Amino acid sequence: MTPHINAQTGDFAETVLMPGDPLRAKYIAETYLENVREVTNVRNVLGFTGEYKGKPISVMAHGMGMPSISIYAHELINFYGVKQIIRVGSCGGVDEELKLRDLIVATSASTNSAMIRDRFAGYDYAAAPDFELLKACSDAAGGLGLSPRFGNILSGDLFYGSNPALLPAMQKMGVLAVEMEAAALFAIAAEFRVKALCVLTVSDHLITAEETSSEERQTSFNQMMELALETAYATTPEMAAA
Asked: In chain numbering, where does the site feature Important for catalytic activity fall (predicted)?
Protein backbone atom coordinates (compact mmCIF):
# COMPACT_ATOMS: atom_id res chain seq x y z
CA MET A 1 0.00 0.00 0.00
CA THR A 2 0.97 3.62 -0.50
CA PRO A 3 -0.07 6.78 1.40
CA HIS A 4 -2.83 7.37 -1.17
CA ILE A 5 -3.84 3.88 -2.41
CA ASN A 6 -4.81 1.01 -0.11
CA ALA A 7 -4.90 -1.71 -2.77
CA GLN A 8 -2.77 -4.83 -2.42
CA THR A 9 -0.08 -5.95 -4.84
CA GLY A 10 -1.76 -7.43 -7.92
CA ASP A 11 -5.07 -5.64 -7.37
CA PHE A 12 -4.64 -3.37 -10.40
CA ALA A 13 -4.63 -4.50 -14.01
CA GLU A 14 -1.80 -3.33 -16.27
CA THR A 15 -4.25 -0.94 -17.97
CA VAL A 16 -6.05 1.72 -15.93
CA LEU A 17 -8.69 4.20 -17.08
CA MET A 18 -8.51 7.37 -15.01
CA PRO A 19 -11.36 9.90 -14.77
CA GLY A 20 -11.03 12.82 -12.41
CA ASP A 21 -14.28 12.13 -10.59
CA PRO A 22 -14.52 9.10 -8.23
CA LEU A 23 -18.23 8.79 -9.10
CA ARG A 24 -17.36 8.58 -12.80
CA ALA A 25 -14.89 5.80 -11.96
CA LYS A 26 -17.67 3.98 -10.10
CA TYR A 27 -20.05 4.50 -13.02
CA ILE A 28 -17.58 3.11 -15.57
CA ALA A 29 -16.83 0.08 -13.40
CA GLU A 30 -20.46 -0.76 -12.69
CA THR A 31 -21.69 -0.06 -16.22
CA TYR A 32 -19.01 -1.63 -18.39
CA LEU A 33 -16.92 -4.11 -16.38
CA GLU A 34 -17.71 -7.64 -15.26
CA ASN A 35 -16.55 -9.34 -12.05
CA VAL A 36 -15.86 -5.91 -10.58
CA ARG A 37 -14.36 -5.34 -7.16
CA GLU A 38 -13.36 -2.17 -5.36
CA VAL A 39 -9.61 -2.19 -4.71
CA THR A 40 -8.94 1.24 -3.18
CA ASN A 41 -10.93 3.96 -1.44
CA VAL A 42 -8.47 6.21 0.42
CA ARG A 43 -9.98 9.73 0.65
CA ASN A 44 -12.90 8.34 -1.37
CA VAL A 45 -10.70 8.31 -4.46
CA LEU A 46 -12.25 5.10 -5.69
CA GLY A 47 -10.54 2.40 -7.74
CA PHE A 48 -11.98 -0.78 -9.24
CA THR A 49 -10.72 -3.80 -11.16
CA GLY A 50 -12.79 -6.02 -13.41
CA GLU A 51 -12.94 -7.44 -16.91
CA TYR A 52 -13.93 -5.86 -20.21
CA LYS A 53 -14.71 -8.49 -22.84
CA GLY A 54 -12.60 -10.93 -20.87
CA LYS A 55 -9.56 -8.69 -20.46
CA PRO A 56 -8.45 -7.22 -17.09
CA ILE A 57 -9.07 -3.49 -16.83
CA SER A 58 -8.94 -1.16 -13.84
CA VAL A 59 -10.60 2.21 -13.31
CA MET A 60 -9.43 4.73 -10.73
CA ALA A 61 -10.12 8.41 -10.13
CA HIS A 62 -7.21 10.88 -10.23
CA GLY A 63 -8.75 13.99 -8.70
CA MET A 64 -8.34 17.50 -10.08
CA GLY A 65 -5.16 19.10 -11.36
CA MET A 66 -1.66 18.06 -12.28
CA PRO A 67 -0.36 17.57 -8.71
CA SER A 68 -3.20 15.13 -7.99
CA ILE A 69 -2.85 13.01 -11.13
CA SER A 70 0.93 13.04 -10.68
CA ILE A 71 0.64 11.41 -7.27
CA TYR A 72 -1.76 8.69 -8.35
CA ALA A 73 -0.07 7.93 -11.67
CA HIS A 74 3.35 7.74 -9.99
CA GLU A 75 2.09 5.28 -7.39
CA LEU A 76 0.18 3.14 -9.87
CA ILE A 77 3.22 2.86 -12.12
CA ASN A 78 5.92 2.39 -9.50
CA PHE A 79 4.10 0.39 -6.82
CA TYR A 80 1.40 -1.51 -8.73
CA GLY A 81 3.04 -2.31 -12.06
CA VAL A 82 0.60 -0.37 -14.23
CA LYS A 83 1.82 -0.20 -17.84
CA GLN A 84 -0.70 2.12 -19.51
CA ILE A 85 -3.04 4.84 -18.31
CA ILE A 86 -5.89 6.36 -20.29
CA ARG A 87 -7.30 9.57 -18.88
CA VAL A 88 -11.02 10.02 -19.58
CA GLY A 89 -12.09 13.50 -18.65
CA SER A 90 -13.97 16.67 -19.42
CA CYS A 91 -12.58 19.78 -21.04
CA GLY A 92 -13.47 23.32 -21.99
CA GLY A 93 -13.74 23.88 -25.71
CA VAL A 94 -11.63 26.59 -27.32
CA ASP A 95 -12.01 25.81 -31.03
CA GLU A 96 -15.15 27.53 -32.28
CA GLU A 97 -16.26 24.49 -34.28
CA LEU A 98 -16.47 22.29 -31.19
CA LYS A 99 -19.85 21.55 -29.66
CA LEU A 100 -20.85 20.25 -26.24
CA ARG A 101 -20.18 16.50 -25.88
CA ASP A 102 -17.78 16.39 -28.85
CA LEU A 103 -14.87 14.02 -28.37
CA ILE A 104 -11.21 15.09 -28.38
CA VAL A 105 -8.15 12.85 -28.38
CA ALA A 106 -5.03 14.74 -27.36
CA THR A 107 -2.05 14.39 -29.69
CA SER A 108 -0.05 16.72 -27.43
CA ALA A 109 -0.59 18.80 -24.32
CA SER A 110 0.76 22.29 -23.96
CA THR A 111 0.77 23.82 -20.49
CA ASN A 112 1.09 27.08 -18.59
CA SER A 113 2.43 25.18 -15.58
CA ALA A 114 6.06 25.08 -14.43
CA MET A 115 5.53 21.50 -13.29
CA ILE A 116 6.83 19.87 -16.47
CA ARG A 117 9.90 22.10 -16.52
CA ASP A 118 10.77 20.82 -13.07
CA ARG A 119 10.99 17.32 -14.56
CA PHE A 120 12.98 18.48 -17.58
CA ALA A 121 15.86 20.53 -16.15
CA GLY A 122 14.05 23.83 -16.64
CA TYR A 123 13.36 23.30 -20.34
CA ASP A 124 10.08 22.92 -22.24
CA TYR A 125 9.16 19.24 -22.64
CA ALA A 126 6.83 18.32 -25.53
CA ALA A 127 4.23 16.28 -23.64
CA ALA A 128 2.61 13.76 -25.97
CA PRO A 129 0.71 10.46 -25.73
CA ASP A 130 1.97 7.02 -26.72
CA PHE A 131 1.69 6.43 -30.46
CA GLU A 132 0.44 2.81 -30.14
CA LEU A 133 -2.41 3.93 -27.89
CA LEU A 134 -3.13 6.87 -30.17
CA LYS A 135 -3.34 4.63 -33.24
CA ALA A 136 -5.47 2.06 -31.40
CA CYS A 137 -7.80 4.86 -30.35
CA SER A 138 -8.12 6.10 -33.92
CA ASP A 139 -8.89 2.56 -35.11
CA ALA A 140 -11.41 2.05 -32.28
CA ALA A 141 -13.16 5.30 -33.14
CA GLY A 142 -13.64 4.09 -36.70
CA GLY A 143 -15.07 0.81 -35.46
CA LEU A 144 -17.53 2.64 -33.21
CA GLY A 145 -18.54 5.10 -35.91
CA LEU A 146 -17.14 8.03 -33.93
CA SER A 147 -15.30 11.06 -35.28
CA PRO A 148 -13.25 12.60 -32.46
CA ARG A 149 -11.06 15.62 -33.03
CA PHE A 150 -7.34 14.85 -32.74
CA GLY A 151 -5.07 17.71 -31.78
CA ASN A 152 -3.28 19.84 -29.23
CA ILE A 153 -4.86 20.71 -25.89
CA LEU A 154 -3.69 22.84 -22.99
CA SER A 155 -3.29 21.58 -19.42
CA GLY A 156 -3.81 24.56 -17.13
CA ASP A 157 -3.14 25.14 -13.45
CA LEU A 158 -6.04 27.53 -12.87
CA PHE A 159 -9.73 26.68 -13.09
CA TYR A 160 -10.87 30.16 -12.06
CA GLY A 161 -9.08 33.13 -13.58
CA SER A 162 -6.22 33.14 -16.07
CA ASN A 163 -4.01 35.49 -18.01
CA PRO A 164 -6.36 37.33 -20.40
CA ALA A 165 -3.84 36.77 -23.18
CA LEU A 166 -4.12 32.99 -22.88
CA LEU A 167 -7.41 32.46 -24.73
CA PRO A 168 -6.41 34.42 -27.88
CA ALA A 169 -3.02 32.69 -27.80
CA MET A 170 -4.70 29.28 -27.75
CA GLN A 171 -6.97 30.28 -30.61
CA LYS A 172 -4.03 31.58 -32.62
CA MET A 173 -2.10 28.32 -32.19
CA GLY A 174 -5.04 26.01 -32.89
CA VAL A 175 -5.40 24.59 -29.38
CA LEU A 176 -8.67 22.64 -29.27
CA ALA A 177 -9.51 22.71 -25.59
CA VAL A 178 -8.26 23.23 -22.06
CA GLU A 179 -8.17 20.75 -19.16
CA MET A 180 -5.95 20.29 -16.10
CA GLU A 181 -4.07 16.96 -16.15
CA ALA A 182 -2.86 15.52 -19.46
CA ALA A 183 0.55 17.22 -19.69
CA ALA A 184 1.57 15.87 -16.31
CA LEU A 185 0.32 12.37 -17.17
CA PHE A 186 2.22 12.32 -20.46
CA ALA A 187 5.43 13.50 -18.79
CA ILE A 188 5.24 10.91 -16.00
CA ALA A 189 4.53 8.15 -18.50
CA ALA A 190 7.56 9.19 -20.55
CA GLU A 191 9.81 9.31 -17.49
CA PHE A 192 8.89 5.80 -16.39
CA ARG A 193 8.59 4.32 -19.90
CA VAL A 194 4.93 3.45 -19.81
CA LYS A 195 2.06 4.40 -22.13
CA ALA A 196 -0.50 7.16 -21.70
CA LEU A 197 -3.42 8.61 -23.62
CA CYS A 198 -6.05 11.28 -22.97
CA VAL A 199 -9.62 11.12 -24.30
CA LEU A 200 -11.89 14.06 -23.49
CA THR A 201 -15.49 15.19 -23.79
CA VAL A 202 -16.31 18.87 -24.23
CA SER A 203 -18.29 19.70 -21.09
CA ASP A 204 -18.33 23.46 -21.55
CA HIS A 205 -17.16 26.01 -24.09
CA LEU A 206 -14.99 29.02 -23.34
CA ILE A 207 -16.35 31.01 -26.29
CA THR A 208 -20.08 30.24 -26.22
CA ALA A 209 -20.33 29.81 -22.41
CA GLU A 210 -22.44 26.66 -22.89
CA GLU A 211 -21.99 23.97 -20.26
CA THR A 212 -23.21 20.57 -19.09
CA SER A 213 -24.30 19.74 -15.54
CA SER A 214 -22.13 18.00 -12.95
CA GLU A 215 -24.46 14.97 -13.11
CA GLU A 216 -24.04 14.74 -16.88
CA ARG A 217 -20.28 14.79 -16.45
CA GLN A 218 -20.46 11.83 -14.09
CA THR A 219 -22.76 9.54 -16.02
CA SER A 220 -23.55 10.61 -19.58
CA PHE A 221 -20.24 10.82 -21.42
CA ASN A 222 -20.66 7.26 -22.65
CA GLN A 223 -19.03 7.65 -26.08
CA MET A 224 -15.78 8.74 -24.43
CA MET A 225 -15.89 5.82 -22.01
CA GLU A 226 -16.62 3.30 -24.76
CA LEU A 227 -13.83 4.68 -26.96
CA ALA A 228 -11.35 4.45 -24.09
CA LEU A 229 -12.45 0.92 -23.21
CA GLU A 230 -12.17 -0.29 -26.82
CA THR A 231 -8.70 1.28 -26.99
CA ALA A 232 -7.75 -0.45 -23.77
CA TYR A 233 -9.14 -3.75 -25.03
CA ALA A 234 -7.09 -3.53 -28.23
CA THR A 235 -3.84 -2.91 -26.36
CA THR A 236 -4.26 -5.02 -23.21
CA PRO A 237 -2.81 -8.57 -23.10
CA GLU A 238 -5.13 -11.52 -22.70
CA MET A 239 -5.66 -12.87 -19.18
CA ALA A 240 -3.32 -15.66 -18.19
CA ALA A 241 -4.90 -19.11 -18.10
CA ALA A 242 -5.79 -20.33 -14.61
From this structure: 217
